[in-house]
Amino acid sequence: MNTMFKGGLQRLIRAYPSLNLRIEVSKQQHEANVVLPGLRFEDIIFTGQPDIWRLYDMMGRVEFASFFNEYPFLNYTTLYSLGLGSVTKAVNLEVRSHFYELTTPKSPLDMSMKLIHIGENSFTILTELRCGGRQRPSIKVKSLYVLFNRKDGSKQAVPDWWREHFSKHVSHSDGRPFFITPFEKPNQTYSHVFTVPLVDTDVRLRTRCASYVRYFLDNASVASYKDFYSNISTSFHEFHIKKLCMLYRAPSSWGDTLTAETWEDPDDLLTLHCEVSDKGHRRWYGSMSFHSEIFGLPGPTLKNMEA
Questions:
Q1: What percent of the chain has pLDDT above 90?
Q2: For the segment 60-88, what is each residue's pLDDT rounded down to a tens digit?
Q3: Most buried residue, 96, 171, 176, 290, by CB count within 10 Å?
Q4: 96 contacts 137 by C-beta, under 8 angstroms
Q5: d(Cα 111, Cα 33) in Å, to the nearest integer?
Q6: In what order do the strands lie in the sheet with 139-149?
């Protein structure tokens, strides 16, 4: 085991109480809730809008903290003590348009999590973020986690005792399985090469899913600025993200040299795709769709609509 990783999880868990953020876990451990103070100045980009990848990163970190809470969400610490771990395999993130309205308060943030599906070797969590006391969620994230053996990395089935307990509490109304089919990469893409920094990794030094979202956004930003896309002009940052779909194909780690490639959807003017690879080996896929409405700024430009 890497000496940097050894004991890293324990140090991280011991640091959580100093944040004074109380995670409320339901008696049956199938739901959890936490109230966050709100967005910080660094969570707002130069357009005056929230940085969605930062929000997704924050939500993922709270999910992780809930797994190792004193009273753990999904009884995760018992799974961990049995030698099991989990990895995010697929994510479906949706942002409602009202979230981008400047009149929508960005504090406090009420974050709720609940188990909505149990598969053969996976489980799915629905995480919702509500702003300023609103009842309707502004952001909804469905995350599919796959269980693995922490010693050899092999995929593991959901334990019978865990399934028996939690199947009684699954929210069936939200629990339809979701599937993400990667879009075939065309010959012409905008690509750039980069090295994974330590800050983009988890306690196992593996690249975090939220980090891939930033790689996607960084690439698309530069591609738009350099006029690569035929539809979305240099006003890329004036578009508001409506939906993000992600598929985690294989792990990458601190120090790996990766290539990010983006391209436009040939049928949808408001959708981009991204693939991240390592020497030709696919690691991650994502698609990003935008709202057609614009809030707080002049409308962005779609080249094919200029006429």
A1: 68
A2: 999 999 999 999 999 999 999 999 999 99
A3: 290
A4: yes
A5: 6
A6: 24-25, 31-36, 109-118, 122-131, 139-149, 84-95, 241-248, 281-290, 271-278, 257-264, 190-195
Q: Per-residue DSSP letters for 196-213?
A: --GGGB-TTSBBPHHHHH
For residues 32 and 26, the answer to whether their CB atoms sit within 8 Å is yes
Please tell me the predicted confidence (pLDDT) of residue 13: 74
Question: What homologous superfamily is domain 181-307 in, according to CATH?
Answer: Hotdog Thioesterase (3.10.129.10)
Average pLDDT value over all residues in the chain:
89
Nearest residue to 122 (alpha-carbon basis) of 142, 145, 143: 145
In the chain, residues under CATH classification 3.10.129.10 are 11-179, 181-307
Cis upstream peptide for 108 (omega within 30°)? yes
pTM comes to 0.89
CATH match of 11-179 with 3.10.129.10: yes
Which tens digit of pLDDT belongs to each residue from 8-31? Answer: 677 777 777 777 788 999 999 999
Element at 117 (helix H, strand E): strand 109-118
The span from the CA of 94 to the CA of 134, in Å, is: 17
Residues of the chain with pLDDT under 70: 1-8, 171-175, 234, 295-307
The percentage of the chain sitting over the pLDDT mark of 70, rounded to a whole number, equals 91
Question: Where do runs of H (alpha helix) occur along the chain?
Answer: 8-15, 52-67, 76-81, 160-166, 209-225
d(CA 59, CA 112) in angstroms, rounded, equals: 10
